[in-house]
Design a protein that fits this description.
single chain, 225 residues, alpha/beta, Rossmann fold, five-stranded parallel sheet, 8 strands, globular, binds cytidine-5'-diphosphate
């Protein structure tokens, strides 16, 4: 049986680091849907296509071939993993992610991936839209300051020079746009397990989630393929 795990939550809640750990532990594929929205933003910015130009965006998206290779996002043969985490992309991504045509296209790609593989997917609308029937759903939260601090450290470690205040501002702005957009806004699915990661380490959160997953798998006599 296919295992489908949905992880949602606001920016910087630790979703992607934790999802990677769980993917390894259960030997399933990790799909970072935020990276896909970021790639759309990156290519639109490169080609000077604004978020108001739906036709331009559709044409552009249709020319992009995206796939994950060992957690790296490859678009038209180019590894864009480092480029898409740059602050310029972070500032613009939610604008592009609010465009109906962009969401429809990526939602379909993500659902196709989940039909082929056992997956853990993280994003904003996984439990509520992409994997509405996921085997198990999680919703990760943490205070905005804690999330900004994590993102600040992560970027500095990667040699990307940023200011804490500007990261906090970006996170607050994105949270607002993501939870107020018309189409599939960020919200907790009714059947999602909420975990506040403010006072837990990444490993502790992954441990709590793994226990939930294992217990549910046992209950349903499930093994992964
Ligand atoms: O890693 P971080 O929490 O900063 O965000 P991300 O997961 O990389 O997502 C970047 C942006 O993509 C979000 O702020 C959303 O605007 C958008 N997104 C979305 O709309 N739906 C998803 N399933 C995933 C991301």
């Amino acid at each position: 049986m296919k295992l489908t795990i949905a992880v949602d939550g606001p920016a910087g809640a630790g979703k992607s680091t934790i999802a990677k750990l769980i993917a390894e532990r259960f030997n399933i594929m990790y799909i970072n849907t935020g990276a896909m929205y970021r790639a759309v933003a990156l290519f639109a910015m490169r080609r000077n296509i604004g978020s108001e130009d739906a036709d331009g965006l559709i044409g552009m998206i249709n020319s992009l071939e995206m796939h994950f290779d060992k957690n790296k996002l490859i678009v038209n043969g180019e590894d864009v993993s480092e480029l898409i985490i740059q602050p310029e992309v972070s500032k613009k991504v939610s604008e592009y992610a609010a465009v109906k045509e962009v969401r429809q296209h990526l939602l379909k790609l993500q659902q196709d991936m989940s039909k082929k593989y056992s997956v853990i997917m993280d994003g904003r609308d996984i439990g509520t839209a992409v994997l509405e029937d996921a085997f198990i759903k999680f919703y990760l939260i943490a205070s905005a300051e804690e999330r900004a601090l994590r993102r600040y450290r992560e970027l500095m470690e990667k040699g990307i020079d940023v200011e804490f205040e500007s990261i906090l501002e970006d996170i607050n702005k994105r949270d607002y746009t993501d939870s107020h957009r018309e189409l599939n806004p960020l919200r907790k699915a009714a059947d999602a397990i909420e975990i506040d990661s403010s006072k837990l380490s990444i490993e502790e959160v992954a441990e709590v989630m793994s226990e939930h997953i294992e217990n549910k798998m046992k209950k349903y006599g499930m093994t992964v393929n």
